[in-house]
Specification:
9% helix; five-stranded antiparallel sheet; 771 residues; mainly beta
Length: 771
């Protein structure tokens, strides 16, 4: 399976309702006895784009991960940087003690206290927005847009296609596998916010001295024949006085150029080698003066013809320049190109570069102009590049600038798995990192991407051999690490300018995911996981009725209190105690289940009770709704109900509790307006825990290390999951509803293959390197 790094037009779900009217605030009331119907279709809006000419970009991201650190073992220490020690953080503030009122529970009746039908109806009428955890369903995979005169579907823009790549389920390659061959590479790491990020780069480690690495390189000209008879041939078409193949071979990508960066001469050498020498100048200028990573003078292989059926491509003429371009379906092109490796005798130790000339590639979300890939072949991992070569006045970035982007990023992220804490575009100060903000995805160590919005400054002209070629500016490594002192030439953070490292922002921590799908269900959601790996949640049957279940890793069993018409299992302890809530003819109740026996939970005087958390001592947290339909948190301990009201809004919901008696929840309403404040309560009192820049932060779970997880929503409607590790927020690839002490989280994601929501078990790579 191939992993792809591309830019493409991408959409994200935008929910144009406040957090209190979407399905993310925690108390749940049935709108019908059979359960809520699925939410309305999400509105899809174009994501922000990059900044190359005419909004084209060169390539993008995939989402696997390579970070370590934190707990140092499978069983983390509960005292390791717990939330109790983090009051100094700007997003976590201590406030006054809550109002906690003790009420005696005379008995926890096994079948519950009946509520009047009138009260239940009033509750349904008053609170139609309350949680059923049925998020809006994406409209599905959109078909390719129509091609306008410019060929770009009317948008004329393209951005990173991380979400699209995730949907295509690209698998991680393994260059370290036994008997696997690939290009030479070296490894190192950096730490940030208590996590360690590993990376691999082409060549050898410059800290170890002068070594020259030469990568065998092939150039494969592509000839596209379209259904209307149009032909585009990178080996014969003339662009700015020479063919794309001639332009690439004669450019500083392969020919030496005297590179002087900020007044410092870094070498008379190739483009990417000059960048890498400048990147690690602290080593090159001292212990490794003859360090080089070079491409061999390329072998130009025979032109390869690709026949493009009418449904796989189209041709258009740019009305501004009258240049003619082709567009080919990307998946069709990938299959055709990867089928050429064996017939052309391309080795995994070489770098093949496919040159498309004036032909773009189209995904179902948009257009891209250049890509670097890593794909698993039988003999090892094959890295390769696809690049356009456009006119200097064309609609893309000119001549070799696309290839300069791809070659540099191939050198510093060859296997497309050098993940970073996230970063902002140069000169921007968004609270959410670039891709985390746009897609809920991870930013990798892609050295050209951060400068895309700085066009035209990002494009640099180089005169060579009587011609002018163009390259892009690049970010040095300490732009990503945020080291205060850059190790690169002149202490710079970019190749052609001084600049500064990325501003602080919230990035995404991707996880290894396992899908859990209840057999025959319309919808599956996971809410809790214990340290044995047992998970609980609910599914919707073919009648759209919600039913609680337990999954032990090999078998499912339903968890439904007697007489229930709707049930959800929410959390589970290591001893097997399960809590949740259900609806019957008398109303809505919490429940506790253990050893085959159910107990119904009803907060005294409440019209509805929901149990959301439980710890090893059997203390239970949840939500009670009073006769005025106000939500209050509660803790049930030793047979006593404690009412908990946080000092923020006028509504409180307590969701999770750990064995140290810290609990988490959310407060909203009243003075908070449309905002919702997440909080953790520990020995220091209430600690606000809000995602930076979020309108609403909703913690759903809290483990014994102090790690929380939940959901947040930005003011523009963007909604995603998160975890808070060591006091720092990280986005996740799915909505987080539960966690355990072994770096596992559970929740909800949309499976585009099945066209429905499924439960997800995710493993955070904190205990060991994933490389």
């Amino acid at each position: 399976m191939k992993m792809k790094n591309m830019k493409t037009l991408q959409f994200r779900t935008s929910i144009n309702r406040s957090p209190l009217r979407i399905s993310f605030i925690l108390f749940a009331v049935l709108l019908t006895c059979s359960g809520l119907s699925p939410g309305s279709l999400a509105q899809l809006t174009p994501a922000p784009d990059g900044g190359y000419p005419n909004h084209n970009t060169a390539e993008g991201e995939d989402a696997l991960f390579s970070l370590t650190g934190g707990f140092g073992g499978n069983t983390p220490s509960v005292s390791k940087r717990s939330l109790a020690t983090q009051s100094a953080l700007t997003t976590q503030q201590r406030v006054r003690q809550p109002s906690i009122v003790t009420r005696q529970a005379t008995e926890i009746p096994p079948t519950g206290v009946k509520r009047s039908g009138t009260a239940a109806a009033q509750l349904n009428q008053r609170l139609p927005f309350l949680l059923d955890m049925t998020p809006p369903v994406p409209a599905g995979q959109p078909a390719p847009g129509s091609i306008d005169a410019a060929g770009l579907g009317g948008n004329r823009r393209s951005v990173d296609g991380t979400a699209m790549l995730k949907l295509l389920e690209r698998r991680k390659v393994n260059p370290n596998a036994a008997n696997s061959s690939t290009i030479p590479f070296w490894s190192d790491s950096f730490t940030y916010q208590g996590l360690t990020f590993n990376y691999r780069m082409v060549g050898t480690d410059p800290k170890k001295g002068s070594t020259t690495t030469v990568i065998p390189t092939e150039i494969i000209p592509l000839r596209f024949v379209f259904a209307d008879g149009s032909v585009f041939d990178a080996s014969t078409d003339i662009i700015d006085g020479q063919t794309p193949i001639q332009g690439i071979v004669n450019s500083p990508i392969f020919q030496n150029y005297d590179f002087v960066l900020g007044g410092t001469h870094v070498g008379n050498t190739q483009w990417a080698d000059a960048f890498q020498r400048g990147n690690f100048w602290n080593s090159v200028s001292t212990r490794a003066p003859n360090y080089h990573v070079l491409l061999s003078q390329p072998t130009v292989l025979p032109t390869q013809t690709i026949m493009v059926p009418a449904d796989k491509g189209t041709v258009f003429i740019d009305p501004v320049t009258s240049h003619r371009y082709g567009i080919v379906d990307s998946e069709y092109a990938f299959q055709e190109l990867e089928s050429l490796f064996d017939p052309l005798n391309i080795q995994t130790t070489s770098l093949p570069i496919f040159v498309s000339g004036s032909v773009y590639f189209r995904t179902f979300r948009g257009i891209f102009v250049g890509i670097h890939f890593a794909t698993q072949r039988q003999s090892g991992v094959q890295t390769y590049i696809i690049t356009m070569y456009d006119f200097q006045n064309g609609i893309s970035i000119p001549d070799t600038s696309v290839l300069s982007h791809e070659v540099a990023e191939w050198m510093d992220d060859p296997f497309i798995d050098n993940y970073t804490p996230g970063w902002n575009f140069v000169g921007r100060f968004n609270e959410q990192c670039r891709l985390a903000e746009v897609f809920g995805a991870v930013d990798r160590l892609e050295v050209a991407d951060p400068l895309e919005t700085t066009y035209p400054d990002v494009i640099v002209a180089l005169s060579s051999g009587g011609n002018v070629y163009h390259v892009v500016d690049l970010a040095f490594i300490d732009f990503f690490t945020r080291n205060a002192n850059s190790r690169s030439v002149n202490g710079q953070y970019y190749m052609f300018q001084t600049g500064a490292p990325s501003s602080e922002c919230v990035g995404q921590i991707p996880v290894e995911e396992q899908i859990v799908d209840f057999p025959g269900s319309l919808f599956t959601d996971l809410y809790g996981i214990n340290n044995h790996g047992d998970v609980v949640g609910f599914y919707r049957d073919q009648n759209n009725v919600a039913r609680g279940f337990l999954f032990t890793g090999h078998s499912f069993s339903t968890i439904e209190p007697p007489g229930s018409v709707f049930s959800k299992a929410i959390k589970i302890t290591d001893s097997g105690q399960i809590v949740g809530y259900f609806f019957n003819s008398a109303g809505q109740h919490g429940f506790s289940y253990q050893n085959g026996a159910f107990q119904t939970l009803d907060f005294p005087g409440a019209v509805a009770t929901l149990a959301f958390g439980v710890n090893s001592a059997g203390d239970i947290t949840g939500i009670s709704v009073d006769a005025q339909f106000n939500a209050h948190g509660f803790i049930l301990t030793g047979g006593h109900y404690l009412s908990v009201d946080a000092p923020f809004g006028n509504q409180t919901e307590v969701t999770g509790i750990n064995s140290l008696h810290a609990f988490a929840g959310v407060s909203y309403g009243g003075a908070l307006g449309d905002s919702a404040y997440g909080f953790v309560h520990n020995q220091s009192g209430f600690v606000i825990q809000n995602m930076p820049g979020a309108l609403a932060t909703i913690p759903y779970t809290l483990n014994n290390t102090g790690m929380t997880g939940g959901i947040f929503e930005l003011s523009d409607g963007y909604t995603s999951g998160y975890v808070n590790l060591f006091g720092y927020f990280h986005q996740t690839t799915f909505l987080v509803l539960g966690n355990n002490d072994l770096n596992q989280i559970v929740g909800l994601n949309y499976d585009y293959g099945q066209g429905k929501y499924v439960g997800v078990i995710g493993t955070l790579p904190l205990a060991e390197n994933v490389h």
